[in-house]
Amino acid sequence: xxxAPELPELDPVIHAPARLRVVVTLNxxxxxxxxxxxxxxxxxxxxxxxxxxxxxxxxxxxxVEIVKxxxxxxxVTYVALTRRGRAAFEEYTVAIRKLLEAAETGKD
Length: 108
Prior knowledge:
alpha+beta, three-stranded antiparallel sheet, WH-like_DNA-bd_sf, DNA-binding, Winged helix DNA-binding domain-containing protein, DNA binding, ArsR-like_HTH
């Protein structure tokens, strides 16, 4: 009997559906680019409060950088994926691919 292949662990910070959508969206930006909070919120169709909660978890993990500044007198919040966040997303996608390959192999 063959031993089952060891399946990779998925990063729980990224794996939550809403956070996965955030990371995928931010990963589409060029490294070093950022997006204004309202634009990200609109793209994702999330409420400001919900997006804020998920961004806080991603920021705590070091996956996103949040910069609060002013444009004239108006406060503006920018969000960007960090290098650590990009690396974590790459590891996550590798783990997902391995899980899918294992599922396909198990069908034989």
